[in-house]
Amino acid sequence: MARAQKVSYFAMQVPNRVGEAGRILAGLAKAGINLLAFTGFPDGQRSQMDFVPANPKTFLAVARGMKLRLREKKTGFLIRGTDQRGAIARIMSKLAVAKINVTAVDAVCAGGGRFGAILWVKQKDVSRASRALGA
Predict the structure, then answer these.
(1) Who contacts 62 (Cβ-Cβ below 8 Å, separation ≥6)?
(2) Distance between terminal CA atoms of the chain?
């Protein structure tokens, strides 16, 4: 059984150099920011970082103070559930049946019989995806 939740996420581009993500994440943690999810990946000479904060308003205030150059807020989906074979396949199938293309997904086994995932769809598809996932 899995549960989907709509979440706000914020993306930014940073230089692709050693320690950049660690520096930013340490600053956020020191300021008391709780992240529900984080993902980062190289993008040419730069890297993209995506943040899913537990409290978007507080995150934005701290990010402004840290002078982080965030893109506008967008909506994604946080998935949490019981870890079992095919858990993420069932989620992806629901979206496929609804004819919604997933832009990206990161899924992991969380231990203790749990799994988690963060997934993104085009912003024009958020409402339909929300209905398909029961979010």
Answers:
(1) 28, 31, 32, 33
(2) 14
Q: Dihedral of the CA atoms 27, 29, 34, 35 (nearest 10)?
A: 60
SS3 17: coil
**Pairing assessment for the beta strands 102-111 and 114-121 based on DSSP bridges:** antiparallel
Report phi then psi at 120, rounded to 5: -125, 140
**To which residue do tokens 């949490």 refer?**
80
What is the C-alpha to C-alpha distance for residues 48 and 40, in angstroms, rounded to an integer? 6
The pLDDT tens digits for 22-68 are: 999 999 999 999 999 999 988 888 999 999 999 999 999 999 999 99
Mean pLDDT rounded to a whole number for the chain: 93
Region of 73 (left: φ > 0; alpha: ψ -120 to 50; beta: rest) is beta
